[in-house]
Amino acid sequence: MFKLASDFLSLDFLRQQNQKNKPESQFSSLPISQITKEGKVLAIILRREFNQEGIHFLTPDDFSQQLAYMRHPTGKSIMPHVHNKVQREVFFTQEVLIIKRGKLRVDFYDDDQQYLESHILRDGDVVLLIQGGHGFQVLEELEMIEVKQGPYVGNKDKTRFTGIEETVVKMAGAEIA
């Protein structure tokens, strides 16, 4: 059902394209993160600093929620279109969170509710929550937008569980609160 991270997310390609446009000394990494467990992608974080020209889909075609970044010049036309009625099967809810303002810590868990790591999201950051579990701690007053598939089925839609204690938070990379 879910592909391995190495099968779809063209971060290496984007990094190569980025290197062509910048001197090596200015290049560190693209502001995109994957949270993975045993080759399965649990989440994708797109930082506000990402600014590659064109259209960049960060998900494979078979994900039930698609995440793309688009940057076009003034005057670019996007042809009018309608989306056709297509029957799809969706077995798990995938969510997209867009941080408008504030600071949010996201705690990531695997499908067995085992804690993996935490990341801080700030103004303009976007996260696609694909599978596994997640919990949140608001670190600064927060405004965010959530997008997910419907229809919502109430308590059948999620299983709640006890999260981690503050003393065991593992911040990914060099992130600090």
TrEMBL record:
<protein>
    <recommendedName>
        <fullName>Cupin domain-containing protein</fullName>
    </recommendedName>
</protein>
<dbReference type="InterPro" id="IPR011051">
    <property type="entry name" value="RmlC_Cupin_sf"/>
</dbReference>
